[in-house]
Structures are given as structure tokens and as C-alpha cells.
Amino acid sequence: MLKDKDKIYIIDDFLTPEQQDDIERETIKLTFWKWRATSSKLFPPPSEDEFKLMGAGSRPLAMDISKNSKFKIKDNLFWNQFRPGLMVGEYFEYGINEWVWWAPKDIILMPLKFLNLDYQIQRIKGNFNPQEVIGNLGSCYTPHVDIENGGGWTAIYYVNDSDGDTVIFNELTNNPVRNHEELSVKQVIKNKRGRIVIFNQNSLHAGCPPIESENRIVINYNFIT
User: Fold this and answer.
1) Which residue from 1, 131, 144, 181 puts its CA 20 to 30 A from 69's CA?
2) How many domains does the chain have?
3) Mean pLDDT of the chain
């Protein structure tokens, strides 16, 4: 199925409404005990040595750019803001010398299972964005690559309906962001419950804040085929 790294694959309604409900239920459960803010004094970003242990092979972008960084986006389709309210919940992460599941494996892996993919997981996490003010309409968060030089794919599964879209750029790797180069939009993916979008792991992408919806919840998969 996944053969062309230049292509963006969008698949809708491949899970039943009941399966979509199961995924949403288990994802929301994490808000009570496992969701946390992105890097802060309490949760500092991983060190480079820790990232090597995780097998990501990627220097965290947050180490190289300021929270106030702004990026030029061709044709001014979007303006860039730093993530103000993103919460993350790890489903599958590197713990003390082992990989740990924080959610029911069979439910969280359901989107990959029903696509009949032969895969090796690199990381799985959930992203939760709360509703933002109307003044942030038309913005996107910081463009980024999840795992640089990982050789795999990024997939985003939309847990709920929301007006927070996903922007995929033409540029590859985090270097254009580190160097403050102008970016160009390749495709904008609408946030639809039960949809999954799969694309080259090296493609810069960014989420957009929900303005009309109460929140935006997605599951982010990184894997190798």
C-alpha cells in the first residue's frame, strides 16, 4: 500500500463507528492521568543521549529554535505560532530499559491493523489541543518533523471531528525551520473523525488550533514498513 514517499495517503471510514468510539474512549481516559504539557521545567525535553537510546536519531527541534520563532510561509496561507496549549499522552514510549504501553495495545493499534500494514513501531502518542481564541484563526503551530532520518512514515489518526486542520509542507527535515527558510504548503488535510493521513516521515507538517471546536485530539504514529 505505502510505496510512494512523495504521496500523501488519506483513508476515511475504514473503522466502524464502534471501533472509532473505542479509540476515542481510551484516548480520553489518558486525560485523567497521563496527559502532560509539552517541554517545561517540570517536563524538560529529552537529552540527545536519551533520544539515541530511544532510537529516534533526531535532535529535538525545541533545542534549536526559540519559542518566539516565526516562519515565512509562501502565499501567506497560514501564519505561525508556537504551540500554546498542546498536551501530549504517550501510548508507547521508551521507559527504563524497555518499551512501555500506556494504553490498551489492541485498541491503539487498531488503525494500523485494519490497514493491513507490515510495520515496526518507532513511537505512538496522542496530541490534545484545547480550543483557542478567534484571534488565532488562520494560524498553524511550529512546522516540524517527528523523527529525522528515521526512514519511515508518519500517520495521524483523527480521534474526533474538529476544525483544527493538518498542514503538510513541501520541505523535508527540520533544517528549513532551524534555518528560518520560507516554507511552501503541499496540502491541507481536514480533521475528520475516523480519518487517517499517512505521509513521508521526513515531511514538515503542523497542526492548526481548534477555534470553533472545543478541542482537537489526534493519535500520532511513527513507524517503518
Assistant:
1) 131
2) 1
3) 81
Q: State the Cα–Cα distance between residues 88 and 128, nearest whole angstrom.
A: 6
Q: What is the pLDDT of residues 4-56, one digit of tens each?
A: 999 999 999 999 999 999 999 888 776 554 555 554 444 455 565 655 554 44
Does any domain span residue 2? no
Cβ density class 207-225: b for 16+ within 10 Å, e for less: bbbbbebebbbbbbbbbee
1 assigned to some structural domain: no
Q: State how far Cα 191 lies from the chain centre.
A: 13
For the cut 80, the answer to whether the pLDDT of residue 113 exceeds it is yes
Confidence check: pLDDT of 128 > 70: yes
Non-local (6+) Cβ contacts of 222 within 8 A are: 121, 122, 123, 124, 146, 147, 150, 152, 153, 154, 155, 201
Domain membership flag for residue 60 = yes
Radius of gyration in angstroms for the set of CA atoms belonging to the chain, rounded to a whole number: 16
Three-state secondary structure call for residue 32: helix
Is residue 182 a contact partner of residue 73, using CB atoms and an 8 Å limit? yes
CATH number reported for the structural domain that contains residue 209 in this entry: 2.60.120.10
Task: State the greatest distance between any 2 C-alpha atoms of the chain, in Å, as a whole number.
Answer: 47
Q: For residue 105, name the pLDDT band (cuts at 50, 70, 90).
A: confident
Range of the domain at 194: 9-224
Q: How far apart are CA 165 and CA 186, in angstroms?
A: 13
**Given a cut of 50, is residue 57 above it in pLDDT?**
no
Assigned domain for 4 exists? no
* Strand 139-140 with 79-80, pairing: parallel
